[in-house]
TrEMBL record:
InterPro entries tied to this protein: TMEM205-like (IPR025423), Xanthocillin_Biosynth-Assoc (IPR053009)
UniProt name for this protein: TMEM205-like domain-containing protein
GTP-binding keyword on record: no
Localization: Membrane
Gene Ontology CC annotation, any one: membrane
Keywords in alphabetical order: Membrane, Transmembrane, Transmembrane helix
Superkingdom to which the source organism belongs: Eukaryota
PANTHER family, per database record: LATE EMBRYOGENESIS ABUNDANT PLANTS LEA-RELATED (PTHR23241), LD23009P (PTHR23241:SF102)
Residue ranges of the TM segments: 15-35, 55-74, 86-104, 144-162
Residues of the TMEM205-like domain: 16-115
């Protein structure tokens, strides 16, 4: 009878968690958003995004934590041994955390406020109000920050994946 320890499970769990994280990031960022933007009317796109991105940022953060927790052979204790690995996780964790806690909610809030302001403006005038111009600038800043943080998170995830794949090719020779 073969006895498996928890550390024996870390390698497959880590690969599955990491691949799910990377796949989710790439699919959401480069496929779902693009297709949704092209296929949906603006109001439907906005409704979808305000519901989808909080779930995406929570999932991204959870998968990062799980990938760090299952880092072979002993989880986070093994992760901190090599600078390149823990720095990649630190960068990804900080940027994903900022989107989860700060810029994602700010962007969502301003997006919703813009919808309400658009409704108020359409009742009173044909041109953009000062309040709407201010909301547009606020949205643009927060949205740009969220996009850049997400790209940094993906970059850090790819950096770690490159390191992991490089270690595999060295082991298999």
């Amino acid at each position: 009878m073969v006895s498996l320890s928890i550390t024996d499970l870390f390698v497959p769990l880590h690969f599955l968690t990491y691949s799910t994280l990377l796949g989710t990031q790439l699919f959401q960022t480069f496929v779902v958003v693009k297709i949704s933007y092209q296929a949906l009317p603006r109001s439907a796109f906005t409704t979808l995004q305000k519901r989808m991105f909080p779930v995406y940022f929570r999932t991204q953060s959870l998968l990062l934590v799980l990938a760090a927790a299952t880092f072979p052979p002993y989880g986070p204790a093994s992760l901190v041994k090599e600078k390149g690995n823990w720095i990649a996780f630190l960068v990804a964790g900080l940027t994903a955390g900022l989107n989860l806690i700060l810029y994602g909610p700010r962007t969502r809030s301003v997006m919703i406020e813009r919808i309400h302001q658009e409704t108020r403006d359409s009742r009173h005038q044909k041109s953009t109000s000062g309040a709407m111009a201010k909301l547009n600038r606020l949205f643009a800043r927060n949205h740009a920050m969220s996009i850049h943080l997400n790209l940094l998170t993906i970059g850090a995830t790819l950096w770690y994946g490159w390191r992991m794949a490089s270690a595999l090719s060295a082991v298999s020779r």
